[in-house]
Amino acid sequence: MESLTVRSKRDIIDFVNSHDNPNRGKTMVFIALGGIYIDAYDFTSLGIGVDSLQAQLALSAFELGSVTAIMAFGALLGAFGGGYLTDRLGRFKTFILDLILLVVAAIGTALSWDLWSLLFFRFLLGVGVGMDFPVALSFIAEFTNSQTKGKYVNLWQAMWYIAAACTGLIALPFYFAGASENLWRWVVGFGAVPALIILILRLIYIDESPMWAAQRLGLHEAAKILENNYDVRVTVSPSGEDTITTARSRAALSSIFQKGLRARTVLSSIIASTQSMEYFAVGFYLPSITALLFGGSPQEGAVYGILGAIVFNTFGIVGGTTQSFLTHRLGIWRLAFIGYCIAAISLFVVGLIGESVPAYLGALLIGVFIFGHSFGPGSQGMTMATLSYPTQFRGIGSGWGQTMVRVGSILGFYMFPLVLASAGLSRTLLYLTAVPLVGLMALLLIRWDPIGRDIEQIPEPEAAAFTVQGGESPSPASGVESESGSLADKEESN
What we know:
This protein is mainly alpha-helical. The protein has helices at residues 9-18, 25-48, 50-57, 61-88, 91-110, 115-141, 149-176, 183-190, 192-205, 210-216, 219-229, 262-282, 286-294, 298-353, 359-375, 377-387, 391-431, 434-445, 462-469, 487-493; strands spanning 2-6, 232-236. The chain is globular.
């Protein structure tokens, strides 16, 4: 068994970043990703039965947009508050709290009796999703080493599309069993089942993040977590006890906008919001888009919609899985750039050719868009927001990234049905080409990439200002990063 002497928080961080977790590491990572599965399922499941929902509750286009967007409003609130909670309460407590909320809200949504009850429970569902994203990705980043951190964090996108495809697989048996009128209730309510399973697994297997514990609970508690999860015997040096930080003050949101972190925050915000806008304008409405492409009777349209959710999201699984294993080879910046290019080209072509091509070709182009989205910006927005900040700001940074995701999703939710009703499918997709182009411009202006950098090493003189703001004394471990060659680099070296 390896021995480790700990003298400072940095010793804990360096150990985690340089060692595999042989005992429960991968298990905990995939249980954390299980929360992403629930998040994606809850967000996309209503899209399967959106037509039956609209007919059953007699919803107008605006009311339907409100039902879909209200969850994004809740997620925005949950993400903004969840970032603070995960830094304040810890990763474990937030993990449990948000899963309980997801179980209750999924059941409540399925049993909704009118528009207002549906809006209420969808809002609660969004709060739970918004809370879970920052803590799940922060946890993964803090329980994996530097060589695998980017890969495992980036797996969240593949997990999202697996869940989105599963909505179709789960809906099919209910549909053929004659539950078409209440299909949305059965599919949405079923989300409580995997949420309850993940909650139980988290209670059994998940431990607190050692990096967070070193920041907030002290070195002795962090040492216990390391011993429970790694083959290591940890000794806390008496000379190191005076340097530990037990301050419980919250990091301010302004911390991630100060010089030294501002450029990476701006870039991650733009990627997070634009990718979300393009996805929720297209990805959420994949069943409806499929029905529009292939037409037919209402019954045929429902089946096409379910099958479309399965097939299209398979493109997302392939793209999301592929980019995860290329993260450390290409970096987050290049992955986002390539993905935006694919998304922009496919949206432009399918919007330009319109209905002049066979439906199967149009469907293939939508599939290419989903692949490009999941390969690039769809993954990198939240991954950038999670990996760009040191431990003491990771929760607030990841929470802010998720907040920007929800801003984009609200716009996408509202924009698509309204524009579609007035402009038709082809023009709507053509207009959406502007969204990935904005992301491409941001990448060309800010060339920040956290892969291969020591993120815990905050540039001077910002380190002193950050630590004072967080209630700490300046850490001797903080140093100057050597960066140059882009807007982000120049800002962080000034």
